Amino acid sequence: MRLTSVNMTTPLFTALSFLAMLALGSCLAILPEEQPYVERAGIQYSARPYNSLLTVPNGEQFGNWTWPEMCPDKFFAVGFMLRVESEQYGLDDTALNGIRLICAKDEDRSFLYTIESHTGFFGDWSDPQYCPRGVLTSFQLRVEPHQGLFGDDTAANNIRFRCSSNPTLTGAGLDYGEYSLWSQDCGDGGICGIETKMEEYQYGLDDSSLNDVRFHCCAKLQQ
């Protein structure tokens, strides 16, 4: 039997090679990106020492301060998510219900922890936002002031964070109220903990949910 050799320069072979490369490229394009491992830290690291608290002066009056949650040792907040109830169009609005911090160690974003303290019951969690480099170091809180006896209070509506690499990240909250001045800065470290002031569920009366927040600063030099 005579074997017929294939001429590698024929138009047919060139076309088949091109189609094979297209098929390989499309397969590679749909491969999912590697997702980081994310673990809820909760209160298990709440004994971590910290240097200072970041606060702003415009937090609202309703509710009580709840428990702190801390990133693990040597981890710092590098991003965040918000739980926001959308505009209710004449019904009871609560706006910002929760803030979830995302903690990482150095610049490694493959293994993450989350902390959030107490959150409200309304709304959905946004997609995460991250500092391109570095950690969260200060914040502004957007708060609607008390609306009076018969008004609809929303209290905290949105938040902004500043990263140590300088970018500012603005959350996907609502627009009621005004932003505070910037809090103090964490200096040589970054945000490592969170504590929220929450109004509990009002059982059909006016809910405001998240009223205020404060963040813990840890120094990297002490790790």
Automatic annotation (TrEMBL):
Domain of life: Eukaryota
GO CC terms, sorted: extracellular space
PROSITE patterns with a match to the protein in the record: PROKAR_LIPOPROTEIN
InterPro entries in UniProt: VOMI, VOMI_sf
UniProtKB keywords: Signal
Cleavable signal peptide: 1-29
SUPFAM superfamilies listed in its UniProt record: Vitelline membrane outer protein-I (VMO-I)
Protein known as: Vitelline membrane outer layer 1 homolog b
Organism field: Salvelinus namaycush (Lake trout)
Lineage: Eukaryota, Metazoa, Chordata, Craniata, Vertebrata
